[in-house]
Amino acid sequence: GAVVSQHPSWVICKSGTSVKIECRSLDFQATTMFWYRQFPKQSLMLMATSNEGSKATYEQGVEKDKFLINHASLTLSTLTVTSAHPEDSSFYICSARSQGGYGYTFGSGTRLTVV
Amino acid sequence: KQEVTQIPAALSVPEGENLVLNCSFTDSAIYNLQWFRQDPGKGLTSLLLIQSSQREQTSGRLNASLDKSSGRSTLYIAASQPGDSATYLCAVYGETSGSRLTFGEGTQLTVNP
Fold it and tell me: Confidence band (pLDDT; 50, 70, 90) for A91?
């Protein structure tokens, strides 16, 4: 099956610093990856869609200068939260759509806490 | 705009019961529907993927059906176990959503020993 590896699983950072989250497709090429944010007891909120080799498409209300997305290869996409603040604390999950009838595959998520 | 609704929002059952989770969507022009499971603090695990041309999919104790014309899907869990306790999410992928999934709000299932 299709596997997406996401790291780190949790991170604590100080306010004002930047944090990078990686998402790798291990056994398939992901031309498109998706980044979600999830608040407690809520469903997933799509933040942006990243396409390999081009700029990401951000959903309305998502600050593209705060949430930098890079999709430099067919197997790696990164989300960098810049100048993090406590309100950026959340659960971030990546996803990719695989071929071969597996649908969408999700990473294990990253719990970000900004102190 | 596609909207996905899941009922009930929460469900608590004793171990061994058979149960049904419901999902409805407003735009029937979908390519597929996917059921996921999410444990607390974890990512999503795909359970079943139903293509628009299919009526149902089965995996172990799970059976998912799809009635595209009426905009409904059900997830049937047989002989529920405490380990089935999780949030179950339904998501559709269709013509009106580009390449994005549209999620329901989920059903939080608790199976009591």
Answer: very high
Work out whether the CA dihedral B101, A38, B85, A1 comes out positive or negative: positive
Instruction: Test A102 with B46 for CB contact under 8 angstroms.
Output: yes
Peptide bond into B113 cis (omega under 30): no
Q: Which residue of A has its CA nearest to B49?
A: A103
Show the tokens assigned to B4.
């996905």
What is the C-alpha to C-alpha distance for residues A98 and A31, in angstroms, rounded to an integer? 9
| The two structure tokens encoding residue B85 | 């306790």
**pLDDT mean over A30-45:** 90
What mean pLDDT is predicted for residues A77-99? 93
Asked if B19 is an interface residue toward chain A (Cβ–Cβ < 8 A), one would say no
- pLDDT above 90: residue B1: no
pLDDT of residue A108: 95
Closest CA to B23 of B12, B9, B37: B9
Tokens of A49: 């869609």
pLDDT band at B104 (very low <50, low <70, confident <90, very high): very high
Longest dimension (CA), chain A: 42
How far apart, in whole angstroms, are the C-alpha atoms of residue A2 and residue B40?
Answer: 22
Q: For residue A84, give both structure tokens.
A: 């993090």
Amino acid, res. B99: S
Q: Which of B42, B100, B106 sits opposite A49 (nearest CB)?
A: B100
End-to-end CA separation in angstroms for chain A: 38
Nearest C-alpha neighbor of A80 from the set A91, A92, A69, A65: A69
